[in-house]
Amino acid sequence: MTYTFLQQYWWILISLLGGLLVFLMFVQGANTMLISRKLTPTWRRMLLNSTGRKWELSFTTLVTFGGAFFASFPLFYSTSFGGAYWVWILLLITFVFQAVSYEFQNKRGNLLGSRAFQIFLFINGILAPLVLGTAVGTFFTGSDFIIDKVAMTDPSSPIISTWGNNWHGLEALITPALILGLAVMTLDGALGGLYLLDNMEATADGKLDKVIKGGIIGNGICFVIFFVTWVIILCLMNGYAVTAQGTVVLEKSKYLHNFMQMPAVSFMFIAGVVLVLTGLWLGMFTKSRKGIWPAGIGTVLTVMALFFVAGFNGTAYYPSYADFQSSLTIENSCSSQFTLKTMFWVSLLIPFVVAYIAYAWRQMDKTHISEKEMNETENKY
Fold this sequence. Notes:
two-stranded antiparallel sheet, 4 strands, 66% helix, single chain, mainly alpha, 15 helices
């Protein structure tokens, strides 16, 4: 088990967690439909109970994603989470709103009313994927930070990284990274609709399906526009390449070169996009209620491919446009070989955790959410 193998292994694992997180945020995407006036109170309650049984999965995956980054690439964690902290604080606040909203919106004595908490869920559905996608977009566009490892030896101010402006990450919202954020936001909105079709029982008149399909079509079309725009920008933009001597330099069309020089990653990316489009097609234009599965698998593959393009093939995955040599690579930002090796053995437990999640998921979704259940069952959100 060489140091290089362990570094690449943990980047692959981080990429997988990132893909799963984007997929599982269909919960947030589905909640953007809560403010639709076309939903009856019963249908809105069905939607809440459909997503309410899954929200812990997306939150747990977010925590795991952050924890894995901290353990395997601590310099990224300290730089991004410590410098661009407004982005991560905003993301966590929206998740807090989500948890509180599910639990309290229908409690007796609720002074704000259920509608206020549903608006909180809507805000979470918009901001969480938007902020996360924009943050990942900075893996390509770069951020405003400087790394000074020598500062660690200064007892008066042992700060290894400093942020170059007072926006602390929010400046990414006015860069091309926002386009990827918009793509993730609309993708999760479409995935949320696909999940609702699979998880909720159709009404006798079919009107609920029409409302859900309307959301899938609107989000799906916007996603295609934003995603195609992002891919074009990505292939044309200059990238941050790492030379054999470890120097970071700008390279014209670096990310396009990465796709061309890593055919397996290109195949993964194309396969993922095709699967996402297949799932969207099934949800938009057919009677199939299973579009969430090809779209979900495609989402994971596509996000993983983007992470690979950002970090492999001699590329700085967290570039600094303030100081190129401060840019973070898989090699210069990872933990020690001992730490990575120890965590490697721990990571072998992941398949068992995934198997448990799959079992719990199947048990929760064995029976579709129905109007009858909302009218007869007390144990519900």
